[in-house]
Amino acid sequence: MILELDCGNSFIKWRVIRTSCQDVLVGGVVDADLALLQRLREEPGLTLAWCRLVSVRTEEETQRLVAAISDAFAIEVICARPAEEMAGVRNGYREHERLGLDRWLAMLGAFHLAGGPCLVLDLGTAVTADFIALDGQHLGGFICPGMQLMRNQLRTHTRRIRYDDVAAERALASLAPGRETVEAVERGCLLMLRGFILTQLQQAREYWGSDFKVFLTGGDAPLVSEMVPDACWAPDLVFVGLAIACPLS
């Protein structure tokens, strides 16, 4: 069995797959290293042979987690690293090591699945868009705040904006102009997000006409899915790329 980890700044997404056939056996999301170790220890019949991970944390934080996993399960941990070119994809950043590893792996996964031009839209804490051409050249991308960041900034800098997550979810039942603050904020942020997505789709059409594939990933992808009905919903896209970057057998 292989343990796969996608380590963000706030959460760790994890899953365990069969070594032979890549079937997902179990997985989840935790908010701390100790919570991950506890969850893995509680899983019955878990026999880990390897671990591979991608991390956007500091090197010190990443190595601390690597050591904890190695000690707990006596397995080797392989970490994804930046690359200028891999699996037919060429990194488009002037300094390739500065491109976020999660974005890089998502691009590897998308190009592998698409076999041609593609637009990768990742809607998480931050929202990213990346363009990969037919020959695998990464043309660059965009980053903007996600729903949570936009919402939190308004809450932080505007004293009278106060509401809970339940009210936020209820406010998104409609996109009519808001008649109370929670509606105005949530609907305004969502419209900004959708405007960003429309801009990316237009840019992709200018590059490739209609001959490209769109991949949606990230927790807020359902908020824009109706705008891209032909998109491929790929919640594990980073893990697809991780398997390419860190092959195990």
UniProtKB/TrEMBL annotation:
<dbReference type="InterPro" id="IPR043129">
    <property type="entry name" value="ATPase_NBD"/>
</dbReference>
<keyword id="KW-0630">Potassium</keyword>
<dbReference type="Pfam" id="PF03309">
    <property type="entry name" value="Pan_kinase"/>
</dbReference>
<comment type="subunit">
    <text>Homodimer.</text>
</comment>
<comment type="similarity">
    <text>Belongs to the type III pantothenate kinase family.</text>
</comment>
<comment type="pathway">
    <text>Cofactor biosynthesis; coenzyme A biosynthesis; CoA from (R)-pantothenate: step 1/5.</text>
</comment>
<keyword id="KW-0418">Kinase</keyword>
<keyword id="KW-0067">ATP-binding</keyword>
<feature type="binding site">
    <location>
        <begin position="100"/>
        <end position="103"/>
    </location>
    <ligand>
        <name>substrate</name>
    </ligand>
</feature>
<feature type="binding site">
    <location>
        <position position="93"/>
    </location>
    <ligand>
        <name>substrate</name>
    </ligand>
</feature>
<feature type="active site" description="Proton acceptor">
    <location>
        <position position="102"/>
    </location>
</feature>
<dbReference type="GO" id="GO:0004594">
    <property type="term" value="F:pantothenate kinase activity"/>
</dbReference>
<protein>
    <recommendedName>
        <fullName>Type III pantothenate kinase</fullName>
        <ecNumber>2.7.1.33</ecNumber>
    </recommendedName>
</protein>
<feature type="binding site">
    <location>
        <begin position="6"/>
        <end position="13"/>
    </location>
    <ligand>
        <name>ATP</name>
    </ligand>
</feature>
<keyword id="KW-0808">Transferase</keyword>
<keyword id="KW-0479">Metal-binding</keyword>
<comment type="function">
    <text>Catalyzes the phosphorylation of pantothenate (Pan), the first step in CoA biosynthesis.</text>
</comment>
<feature type="binding site">
    <location>
        <position position="181"/>
    </location>
    <ligand>
        <name>substrate</name>
    </ligand>
</feature>
<dbReference type="GO" id="GO:0005737">
    <property type="term" value="C:cytoplasm"/>
</dbReference>
<dbReference type="GO" id="GO:0015937">
    <property type="term" value="P:coenzyme A biosynthetic process"/>
</dbReference>
<dbReference type="InterPro" id="IPR004619">
    <property type="entry name" value="Type_III_PanK"/>
</dbReference>
<keyword id="KW-0963">Cytoplasm</keyword>
<dbReference type="GO" id="GO:0046872">
    <property type="term" value="F:metal ion binding"/>
</dbReference>
<feature type="binding site">
    <location>
        <position position="122"/>
    </location>
    <ligand>
        <name>K(+)</name>
    </ligand>
</feature>
<dbReference type="GO" id="GO:0005524">
    <property type="term" value="F:ATP binding"/>
</dbReference>
<feature type="binding site">
    <location>
        <position position="125"/>
    </location>
    <ligand>
        <name>ATP</name>
    </ligand>
</feature>
<keyword id="KW-0173">Coenzyme A biosynthesis</keyword>
<keyword id="KW-0547">Nucleotide-binding</keyword>
